[in-house]
Design a protein that fits this description.
The complex is a heterodimer.
Chain A (H helix, E strand, L loop, with lengths): L1 H19 L2 H17 L1 H8 L5 H12 L5 H12 L6 H15 L3 E7 L5 H15 L3 E7 L7 E5 L2 E4 L2 H12 L1
Parallel strand pairs in A: 1-2
Antiparallel strand pairs in A: 1-3, 3-4
Helix pairs in contact in A: 1-5, 1-6, 2-6, 4-5
Chain B lengths: L1 H27 L4 H13 L11 H11 L9 H136 L2 H18 L2
Helix pairs in contact in B: 1-4, 2-3
The chains are: A alpha+beta, B mainly alpha.
Chain lengths: ~180, ~230
């Protein structure tokens, strides 16, 4: 039921964004909102709290995105939060991105790194992933200081972990 | 039998001794001095009693005799006759009546004594029987007591052996558990120490890595990662 709802909202977001004609910008903004939602517990708990009135939650969304996102993105986030699906917003955004990429015959590669990748690095990384997996991917970078250094790439269920954090964990395991 | 013969001879002998001893007084008491003197004077006076007669020496001698005691041994004949008859009568009565009565009493007494002796023997035998029975019971009681003591001793020995075996088993279990706990504690201490050391070392390493990860190093790490991914299938 939850998966069906996520899929339905993802389809709706994709249809609205495509209709508004600024799909690429909406994808980037929704991806940023979803990452902020994942990393901020207070924001997530506030928007997902059923006891908080819907008007209050929508006001929080407006305050958060005002001036930082397009009107389409704000409307889509407000739609999801107003419908009481705030806790599922990251999953809905992931499904939206996957469908959007699939419409272009591509997959989404979520890349987590301590620092942002340059445009050149993103292009070379996409080419390298295509070489390694045979898939055309759209690289979406998440800055994650816990990685310390290097990169962790997630393509669906596949994970390519080249982070310093992994090497430190391997070192920790070797001590045991 | 011999006692009976002695008793038969003793009776006449006692009677004869009594006759001789009592004859004198019996004779002396038969005639008084006055009667004796009257009889002498009557015999000498021949019917004519005067004062000359009393001066006659022959008469005085006869009168003097009246003052002398009669024969103490020989009684008067008639007394002997009466005394002998009485003695014989008494002897017959004694032999016919007294002696059997005495004999019967003595026989009865002898029988009673014999019965008493038999009774005493019987009592003695009964006492010996009771004593034997008592000794037998005492022996049984001693044997039973000895058996009970032996059983108690065997039980005590068995209980002691059980307790010793149980104590030894408990001690072995305690030693084994203590050894196991000591080994576990040792292993845990080593693991804790190793974890602590590794945590300290990893913390230090992480700090060193973070301090050394400047923008250039980060870019190099990302490039190296891209090359590694690209070369994974190559």
């Amino acid at each position: 039921m939850a998966d069906a709802a996520v899929a339905g909202y993802a389809e709706a977001l994709l249809a609205v964004a495509a209709a508004e004609g600024d799909l690429s910008a909406v994808e980037d903004e929704l991806f940023s909102v979803a990452q902020a939602f994942r990393s901020n517990d207070e924001l997530r708990s506030t928007l997902a709290d059923g006891d908080v009135p819907a008007a209050r939650r929508l006001q929080v969304v407006d305050d958060l995105l005002d001036g930082r996102a397009s009107a389409t993105t704000s409307a889509l986030v407000s739609m999801v939060v107003g419908a009481g699906r705030a806790s599922e917003l990251p999953a809905i955004v992931d499904a939206f991105l996957e469908r959007s990429a699939a419409s272009r015959n591509k997959a989404v590669a979520t890349v987590r790194a301590a620092v942002d990748l340059t445009a050149d690095q993103r292009v070379r990384l996409a080419a390298a992933i295509k070489t390694a997996t045979g898939k055309d991917v759209e690289v979406r970078v998440v800055e994650d200081p816990s990685v310390l250094g290097g990169v962790v790439t997630e393509i669906g269920d596949d994970i390519i972990d080249g982070s310093v954090r992994r090497r430190l964990n391997q070192l920790r395991e070797s001590f045991r | 039998m011999r006692n009976r013969l002695i008793r038969l001879l003793a009776a006449p002998l006692i009677a004869l001794v009594g006759l001789v001893a009592l004859a004198g007084p019996a004779a002396a008491s038969g005639e008084s001095v006055g009667a004796c003197m009257a009889h002498v004077l009557e015999h000498e006076a021949h019917g004519e009693l005067d004062e000359h007669l009393l001066h006659d020496e022959a008469v005085q001698d006869e009168l003097e005799k009246c003052f002398s005691a009669p024969n103490p041994i020989l009684p008067e004949v008639n007394e002997i006759i009466w005394g002998g008859a009485a003695f014989l009568i008494l002897l017959v009565v004694m032999v016919k009546k007294g002696f059997p009565a005495v004999q019967g009493a003595m026989d009865a007494r002898a029988a009673r004594i014999a019965a008493d002796l038999d009774e005493a023997d019987q009592a003695k035998q009964d006492a010996q029987s009771v004593k034997a029975d008592y000794e037998a019971r005492l022996a049984d009681a001693k044997a039973e007591a000895s058996r009970l003591i032996d059983e108690a001793r065997a039980d005590a020995e068995r209980v002691r052996a059980d307790l010793v075996a149980r104590a030894e088993a408990d001690a072995a279990g305690i030693r084994e558990r203590a050894a196991g706990e000591a080994d576990a504690a040792k292993a845990q201490a080593i693991a804790d120490l190793r974890a602590e050391v590794s945590s300290i070392a990893l913390g230090a390493a992480e700090r060193v890595v973070q301090s050394s990860l400047d923008a250039e190093v980060q870019g190099n790490l990302i490039d190296a990662y891209i090359d590694e991914v690209a070369g994974a299938n190559g």
